[in-house]
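Ligand: Double cubane cluster. Inputs:
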Amino acid sequence: MANYLQMWKDLGMDIENHDNLCAVLPTAFGDTYLSQENRPAAMDFWDMVVADIHGIRPAELIEEQKKGRKVFGTFCVYVPDEVVLAADGIVTGLCGGSQFWVPDGEAVLPKSTCPLIKASVGARLGKTCPFFRIADMYVGETTCDGKKKAWEILGKDVPMHIMDMPQMKRPKDYDKWVEEIKEFAKVVEELTGNEITRDKLENAIKIINAKRKAIERVYQARKADKLPISGKDVLLMTQIAFFDDPERCATMCNKLADELEQRIKDGVSVFPEGTKRIMVSGTPMAIPNWKLHHIIETSGAAVVCEETCTGTRYFENLVEEGKTTLEEQYRAIAERYMGINCACFTPNTGRIDDIIRLAKEYKVDGVIDVNLKFCCLYDTEGKSVEEALKENGIPVLGIETDYTDSDAQQLRTRIEAFVEML
Ligand code: BJ8
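Predicted complex:
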């Protein structure tokens, strides 16, 4: 690993505490990832990125900042990357997927807050995540109550812009979302000092669409009977996509997709024939949350699709290209993002339709509907998800978990029993 100590010091990070984090990550990654056999060669890129996750990309971002570019840290897939890119800004994901950050979050938040929020706040307050230190502005959104309140804490010493998400999908909600995106564009223009023009936005739309298409190609390969890649590897690819430069991300995902398509032609699979195919639906899995995928894929099954924000909700549907005015472009962006079906919307029957469609497209044997502990939205919606799956004859197992390992054995027992009966 290269030496980034000075960079972390300059960022005002808590070096001692950060060392503790750096001490556990490689083991966790090695146990979860490097133990897999016959991984696609293209995964070397993501292995390299993870090995230096607090080094390589943060150093790149700082270099770009020196050239005058601004970095926007985001927490949710509703925040439109295109707008930032059109003003020559950079987007980086900020969510927290590690138990390491939870205690620092619990110091200021109720314990009964979802681990994703606790970890995000803890990563900032504990000064152990360079991305939180680098971002010139955080962009929050009014999705769930926990996040809304977390912005008040996170926004204390960093500029914070909050996008007011509609909670329904009526025509007037679409109009409101267009206005929110336009307001966000103004904020981005102000911070970057760059005007967003129709051509710049068109270019940004094309770049982000290309990234989505590249990720989708990798997902398409998972529809094959012989699986050319594990669910864990795809999850890693998607998690890193939130942090990477979008054009490099597209290039690397396309390279991986090329290899997977070749593997399909050659009949190469990373799982024995007859391995049960599982779709995971529910709450997102921010890096380095690999817990559930690891348990599933070491319990005799394979994850072939994720109906989550670190899965299909991230890349499905494109922004329509070729609009002639900024006004039309903002509407096209709003329409694409309103097509994401998060449980924060009511009603949210579109998500149920997505789950049934995906279960069929990816030919799954069963669905594991996962809820991060204390996420009331996905927990409540879980009942409708289970009912719909059962009506469609698709076996489903609902589970709730957090980032700790305390329930790992119990989860394994339940998942093994579920896979056994498929
Ligand atoms: S679009 S899923 S990324 S809000 S933080 S809602 S898990 S209690 S993350 Fe999310 Fe955007 Fe929706 Fe996706 Fe629940 Fe936790 Fe809230 Fe969460």
